[in-house]
Amino acid sequence: MAPEIPNDIVLYWYPFSPYAYRIYWYLLLRGIKFASCIQPHMLPRPDLKALNVEYRRIPILSIGKDIYLDSRHILSKLETLFPGSELSPRTPEHRLIQKLLDRWTTNGSVFGIAAQMIPADSPAMRDPKFIKDRNDGGMKILAGEARKRMRPEAIVAMRDCFDILENTILADGRMWVFGGNRPSLGDIEALWPFAWVMGMPGALPDAISAKTFPRVFSWASRFNAVIKDIKSAQSVSVDIKGKDVVEYMESAQYAEPSANVDENDPLGLSRGELVEVYPTDYGFSHKDRGKLLTLTPYEAVITKQLNSGTEFRVHVPRWGYRITKVKEGGDLAKI
Ligand SMILES: N[C@@H](CCC(=O)N[C@@H](CS)C(=O)NCC(=O)O)C(=O)O
Prior knowledge:
Layout: E1 9-13, H1 18-30, E2 34-38, H2 46-50, E3 60-63, E4 66-69, H3 71-81, H4 92-105, H5 109-116, H6 128-136, H7 144-167, H8 185-198, H9 214-233, E5 237-239, H10 242-249, E6 274-279, E7 288-295, E8 299-305, E9 311-317, E10 321-325
Parallel strand pairs: 1-2, 2-5, 4-9
Antiparallel strand pairs: 1-3, 3-4, 6-7, 6-10, 7-8, 8-9
Helix pairs in contact: 1-8, 4-8, 5-7, 5-8
This protein binds glutathione.
Protein name: Glutathione S-transferase
Domain DUF7962: 114-230
Domain GST N-terminal: 11-85
C-alpha cells in the first residue's frame, strides 16, 4: 500500500535541531500537514543515502520528486508553493525585517553564539563521537576546559543578542514581531535560536533570564503556548520510514515546473552541464552532483537519480551555496 504523505511533503529532521524548528513551526502555524521522517542526529543517515542525497545537514524537505535543501530556501518555497500564507510579511518594512532576521540568526551571529552556550558538561559536549561527527563536517568544536574558558565571552555576545530583541522590536510591548494578534514568519525568523538556548538545561546564566529580558522570555512563552495549542487540537504529521519515501518517489510528481538557466548569470553555466552543489559554511565536503536544470538569482536546481534510475531534483539557494562545474569524466573543472 502506498504510504500516506499529506500534501506530498516529507520533512527530514530530528527534534533537537533548532534549524528544523523553523520549518516545523511554519507547517504547524499554517496547518499544512506533512510526513515526518526522523533522522539520527549524527551521520550516517541511511535514509538520505538511499535517496542519493549527499548533503549532510538538517532539515531537508521533499515535495513529491523535488528535494529542497536549507531551511531558508525551504521557507521561501513553502511560501510560494502553498500560497495564501497568513504568516507572510505584509509591508516592505516587514519584508526587510524578515530578511534581516533571517541573515542575522542563520548566517550571522546568533546561531553560532547560541551553539557556544551549550554547556561543557552537557551530554553532547562530553560525547567524543558527536564532537568528531561535527568536526568532520568542518566545525571546530571546543570541549572541556577550553569550552569553559570561552564561556564568559559567549555570554557577553548572547546577552547582546537578547538585548537587541528586548530593546528594539519588542520594546513597545507588542505581542508579536510584526504586531497583530498572531505569530508570523517574523516570529519564526527571530525566535528559533533563542528558543533553543532557553530550552537547553544549564545554557543560560542569571544574566540572561526572565528578570533581565522579560519581554523576550514572555514572547517565547506566548509562542510556545500557541504551538502547544495547535498540537493538542489536531494531528499535524504522520511518521514515515525512509524506505517508504524512496518507494513513493518512484511514482511521485514534481512539485513545480522547471525554469531555465539564466544566460546572464555571473557563473556562466549552461543547462545540462554537470555540476556539484554544496554549502560554503559547513558540511562542504558533502557535494551533490547532477545536471544543471535551473539557475536563477535565487536557486540552482540539479537532476539526480535514485538507485533505480528514476530522476528527481535537488534545489539549493544561491546564498551560502557554491555551484562548481565538473569536467566530463568526473574531475572538477578549474574555473
Ligand atoms: N543553512 C542550513 C543550516 C542547517 C544546519 O546547520 N543544521 C544543523 C542541525 S540544527 C546540522 O545540520 N548540523 C550538522 C549535521 O546534522 O550534520 C539551514 O538553514 O538549513
